[in-house]
Specification:
By secondary structure, the protein is mainly α. It is about 45% helix and about 0% strand. It contains five helices and no strands. It has helices at about 15-20, 30-35, 45-60, 65-70, 75-85. The longest helix is centred in the middle third of the chain and has 16 residues, at about 45-60. The radius of gyration is 15 Å and the shape is globular.
């Protein structure tokens, strides 16, 4: 198991997945919601597929929470969980 270079404590895959930095800055991972709102998907079907993949990655432990990993607010996440409702695009 790899050791952390700073403290010698073993780092698990789950710890690595949870510690991924999500956000819009350099060195951070951009969320699927960011890409969707910026218009980078050809159609809604493609966007829904990307959101389903991000949701599965969140279930697998990516990011601090599933909603954070997907880039959704609490309200957007609730709507997604109810019926795969995509968030509103920025204008």
């Amino acid at each position: 198991m790899p050791k952390s270079p700073t403290n010698g404590i073993a780092v698990t895959q789950a710890e690595k997945r949870r510690s991924i930095d999500v956000g819009p800055q350099i060195g951070q991972v951009s969320t699927v919601c960011y890409w969707y709102k910026a218009g980078h998907f050809a159609n809604e079907h493609e966007a829904i597929g990307a959101f389903k993949l991000a949701y599965q990655q969140g279930l697998d432990g990516m990011g601090a929470s599933i909603g954070e990993w997907m880039g959704l607010t609490d309200e957007e996440y609730d709507a997604w969980m109810r019926n795969d409702t995509l968030p509103k695009k920025s204008k």
